[in-house]
User: Fold these one by one.
Assistant:
Number 1:
Amino acid sequence: MLRFLPRKSMNIVNRCIRDAVSQAYRNVAFYRNTYDRAGIRPADIRGIDDLPSLPTVSRIDLMAGGPSSYLAHGSRPETLSVKQTTGTTGTPVTVYMSFCEQAFRKIVFLDAYSRHAGVKFPLSVVDVGPERKSLDDAILVRVGPHKRVRLFRDIPMNEQIHLICKTKAFMIVGRPSILWEVALAMKDRGIRPPRPRIIISNVEMLFGHVRALLTEVFGCPVADYYSCEEVGNLAWQCPVHPDRMHPNLANAWIEIVDRSGRPVGYGQSGRIVITNLYNRTMPFIRYCTGDRGIDLGEGVCDCGFHGPVMRLTEGRDVNFIVLPDGSEINPRNLYDAVNFAFPHDRPDWNLIDSIRAFQIIQETLDRIVVKVVPGPQYSEVFWPKVRKHLAALHPDLKLNIELVSDLTPPPGRKFHQVLGKLDNRWIRERGESADQFERRTRSESI
Ligand SMILES: [Zn+2]
């Protein structure tokens, strides 16, 4: 099997953690201030066993001070790659990476994919549903022997299906909700696409009805990967035991902790916090992802992997949106209608200063509510543009803005960035009603 990165021993992981913490303290104001306030000496952090003495970091803590607080001293944001995300808590996060960090992140993904499919070159990949950016919108991207076909969400479905059939990809990657839409459209049209070697499901939780449909339509295995925009790949599904995941030690160290940041015992469910082992421009150290998992201990697995084992129990979870004409759209399209109204490319502007957190809710067939926790520079200036974007989805959609002081869900409820409250095919095939969907994932008290 072709591997792109050497196996990382625990000694190397410990060294990476020492380096990450000491460099973050030396170069990043946010970490220096946080550790000084907590009376922590970075030299005392020698590896994974010492991590629990560092405070956990939430999105809002990290973002509130702006780039001068969370970027390494001397970074020039205009020269860095930028990604926007909201993760599973509704707080906007701007992620900066240098060119090298971005390249390494891609290699880490390829290395993780090779666990399932023995990646070979030339390699053709179809990426289903990435975000289209104004300066980076080519459908076909070639880097040496790597060909990537990007099926942006605004490409008409027939064209997407045509591209999938034409490409005969080795691998198809994407969010499960978007892969499901494409697979369903193929099934409804009676199209049997070329069989890829593997489908990689990323970013959102992979549910059984999606795995079953993808296997039926594409006739290939489906592997579940746990990833986030902030760091990249965090874990991959064990090739032998599909209900387990192995953390990606090339990239991050994962801890599963209780409310106070202490590790839970083996077999216990808790919050997932991550430490990025390589990114120096914008370090993430004991960063709360908003997801939950179970620590299953460590050892030599039947798949040959030697190291930690976990299970992801809560991550990004979506419901589809029903338009007034009855058609159903992916929640990402509704998210884009709101998010693309924000001037992300203005260098003097940060979403977090205007909006601390937001949630998009479909209350009824024609009513979209955006709940907003306003930031210090909040203004109403975005909403006319959001209304225009909604009208493009359907002219009868109406928008209500509600300013709220907090979007933390009540105990036992899970936060959904886009919450669709109407019944639709996605949740019916999942075997739930809309109300059951909203209540389904009851967080435990930890
Ligand atoms: Zn395994």
Number 2:
Amino acid sequence: MYSTGIDILKECEALNKPIWEIVLLDEIKNNHISETDIFNKMEEILQIMENATSHSIDKRVETLGGIIGGEGKTMMAYANSDKTISGTWITKAMARAFACSEYNASMGKICAAPTAGSCGIIPAAIITIAEKKGLSRQDMIRGLLTSAGVGKIISTNATVSGAEGGCQAECGSAAAMAAAALVEMNGGSPVQSFDAAAIALKNIMGLICDPVAGLVESPCSKRNASGVVNAIISADIALSGIRSIIPFDEVVEAMYNVGRGMHENFKETAKGGISITDTGLAYSRKIK
Ligand code: SF4
């Protein structure tokens, strides 16, 4: 059973296998689930992700607090125009992350990957890059297995909860999981996958959790959009051959220490950050 990135990397080297296969073998051995059942479950998860990222791409849905809505549709229209700065694929990924976040805020069925608040990052990354590169469903499921391995390590040694570690633990973990998956889906090595995960987590280390009116809408949906971009650029940095100076396991430990050191006002209590700005408080009064 693995509990660190080093554990997985050693297994990858010893068995000459990619991360997804080590995660798969671990599930089969320790949770007594057959390979077929795991792949069927991952296909089910992928379908939930596809629905959640496409539901509000062509229509606005009503969210619980009404703070957000329509961002997925707006961003996809922009992605399909010739006006973008960051290009079609980055903006398409952002559109899907927005759409998923919006669907979550409207009580739609999402896959908490690793949490509901950060649910848009992994699906937006995997679906968009698979579409761009013409990858198969098997490739996407392998990406999901890779991200599951990274997520398990973070939740074992730190936290993926905004209430415990701030948004760095939620959107940072999701971006790290997605970055590792993208590297593997694009033919990178296990070392590069963990480097990408470390880079993504470092990129937003210290990010607080400050939801307006205590609802998972703002700034959450935009953090999902920026989180998927973080995942994509971190994967590209690692795939280019640039290493993470600090190894993944140490970055996870550092993120946890930063989270524990954060004042409680910055950990999902809606008592700090943008939630107590004049506008944030006005939304709060309006909703309550
Ligand atoms: S701000 Fe808080 S609630 Fe919103 S996505 Fe980040 S961790 Fe989750």
